[in-house]
Amino acid sequence: MFKRILIANRGEIALRIIRCCREMNIETVIVYSTADKNSLAVMAADRAVCIGPAKASDSYLNENAIIETALLTECEAVHPGYGFLSENAAFARKCEENNLIFIGPSADIISSMGDKQSARQLMIECGVPVVPGSDGLVATAEEAAHIAERIGYPVLIKASAGGGGKGMRKAFSREDIENAFETAKSEAVAAFGNGDMYIEKLVLNPRHIEIQILADKYGNTIYLGERDCSIQRNNQKLLEEAPCARLGKDKRMVMGETAVRAAKAAGYYSAGTVEFVVNEQGDYYFIEMNTRIQVEHPVTEQVTGIDLIKEQIRIAAGMKLGITQEDTFVKGHAIECRINAATPGVIKFLHFPDGYGVRVESHLFEGYEVSPYYDSMIAKIIVTGSSRLEAVRRLRRALEELIVEGIKTNREFMHLLTYHKDFIRGSYNTGFWEKNHTEIEKWLKEGIAVK
Ligand code: ADP
Ligand code: ADP
Ligand code: MG
Questions:
Q1: What is the mean pLDDT of the chain?
Q2: What is the per-residue pLDDT across 342-365, written as a single tens digit (0 to 9) for each?
Q3: Mean per-residue pLDDT for 22-32?
Q4: Catalytic site residue from 292, 359, 388, 396
Q5: 8-state DSSP, 431
Q6: Helix or strand or coil: residue 96?
Q7: Which of 47, 37, 40, 38 is nearest to 7 (CA)?
Q8: CA–CA gap between residue 172 and residue 368 (Å, rounded)
Q9: Is the pLDDT of residue 444 over 70?
Q10: Strand, helix or coil at 266?
Q11: What is the CB neighbour count within 10 angstroms for residue 174?
């Protein structure tokens, strides 16, 4: 096992990794930007090294500074967390060239699976259903219009390097194409430094169902059930649950086996997630694979009892999977709610929920300044119950206990969301937010939220 690893991330996921390393008796070195000088992760790591100013491109994306720090502090491996460099094949390659183990799949696997368009081609080759769309990259709006004509409107113009809901635009008719293509492309260039575009048919109001995979370097690949992440705003997840409230046993198995097939086709190892959209008829289509740990990984941990970060590190260290598909089963129900800051500012008072079945992953503390430089997610509230209903009631109770003073958050909105009939019934899809947010905001204005 590794003696020391470097964590190339910040916030809650950096803490999550540090805690795991503690339990595994691995020393940690964290790199940080000047904006994160007073962060919990910096305090909790065995060593912390400042690598640059607040702007991510000068610090958390500064590949050379990170590699140099890892070498100078004699780390054996680098954990990239999610976001930042976690799906950057060039960075994974730099790690490999410097004899550092990248805790994730190889640079080659990231190139073939982390890039959405090439993953799509690979899936077509191995018979995994994909959404109808372009055969390869689409260079111009003109070309996009031709393809849209062939597959039929509405379509979704997507960036091959996209992530976090960025770099995609819908087009409902020919008139929308130029604008959709150009805005999606420029957003992708700005966010990912890559303007490669492709097109998919827009599946109307699908569910977003994803399968968690674990695979070692010896070809053992298992799936750990699904997560339903259909509650999204602007294609960014807000709430995730495991298992899906309305996926039958048979569909679960078929989708799990399909995800394993997809991972095997790519020669995949590490933790990873195969994402699908499922239409109203129950047909499922591959959309992308995330070749990293995901924000919502705790819900899977809660219902399977498997520590995914620990497994990720064990696999990177060359160990075999200690579990087989037959050993894994899903017990109970878990829901994660993302708490986002609506404004930057200093936390004046903080109280986290606690008690039976409640888990909080957060880097907040009183006096902490939420900076405008990074992702707005400040906490994840994860609840586990023996049934979905129990988990829903526990989530309400946990959100009622949560107090964050000093900044505005989405706490009250999310609390009220748990009272919406479609959520209670579990009969929702990715159209939920669009369809219901005005109504929930009205409840909010009426002041019926728990203060
Ligand atoms: P998940 O698939 O884990 O739910 P999210 O979509 O919530 O991921 O994204 C997790 C974080 O990673 C967010 O901070 C998001 O902005 C960022 N992110 C996701 N994909 C990329 C990418 N390709 N490049 C840069 N940042 C990304
Ligand atoms: P990201 O890398 O930003 O997570 P994804 O390709 O996973 O991008 O898409 C993000 C979300 O956008 C999905 O969860 C889903 O809600 C929606 N989406 C993506 N592709 C389609 C599609 N072809 N039809 C309908 N919705 C889609
Ligand atoms: Mg996605």
A1: 96
A2: 999 999 999 999 999 999 999 999
A3: 98
A4: 292
A5: T
A6: helix
A7: 47
A8: 44
A9: yes
A10: coil
A11: 11
Structure token pair of residue 278: 């499922």
- Residue of 123, 158, 160, 168 with the most ligand 2 atoms within 8 Å of its CB, for mutation: 168
Cβ proximity of 33 and 51 under 8 Å: yes
Cα separation, 112 vs 217, whole angstroms: 17
CA distance 218 to 355: 40
Sign of CA dihedral 84, 366, 396, 333: positive
The greatest distance separating any two alpha carbons of the chain, rounded to the nearest whole angstrom, comes to 59
292 noted as active-site residue: yes
At 451 the pLDDT is 59
Measured CA to CA in angstroms, residue 365 lies from 8, 267, 359, 362 at distances of: 21, 42, 16, 9
User: From the CB of residue 253, how many other CB atoms can be counted at a distance below 10 Å?
Assistant: 11
Per-residue exposure over 318-345, b if at least 16 CB sit within 10 Å of its own CB, e if not: eeebebeeeebebebbbbbbbbbbeeeb
pLDDT over 90 (residue 39): yes
Per DSSP (E only), the strands in 348-436 are 349-351, 358-362, 369-370, 377-385, 403-405
Confidence label for 449 from pLDDT (cuts 50, 70 and 90): low
Beta-ladder partners of 208: 277
Dist. CA 276 → ligand 3 center (Å): 9
Nearest CA to ligand 1 atom 11: 83
Query: What SS3 state is found at 2?
Result: coil
Residue that the structure tokens 């694979």 belong to: 289
Residues in CB range of 23: below 8 A, 6 or more apart: 310
Q: How far is CA 129 from CA 185, 235, 420, in A?
A: 26, 21, 33
Confidence of residue 195 (pLDDT cuts 50, 70, 90): very high
Average pLDDT (251-278) is 97
**Residue 450 confidence (pLDDT) above 90:** no
Read out DSSP for 51-86? EE-SSGGGTTT-HHHHHHHHHHTT-SEEE--SSTTT
User: From atom 17 of ligand 1, which residue's Cα is the shortest distance away?
Assistant: 83
51-90 CB burial, b ≥16 within 10 A, e <16: bbebebeebbbbeebbbebbeeeebbbbbbbbbbbbbbbe
User: Per the structure block, which two tokens stand in for 379?
Assistant: 């906490």
Is there a cis peptide before residue 105, judged by omega within 30 degrees of 0?
A: no
Per residue in 292-337, pLDDT (tens digit) is 999 999 999 999 999 999 999 999 999 999 999 999 999 999 999 9
Per-residue confidence (pLDDT) for residue 33, from 0 to 100: 98
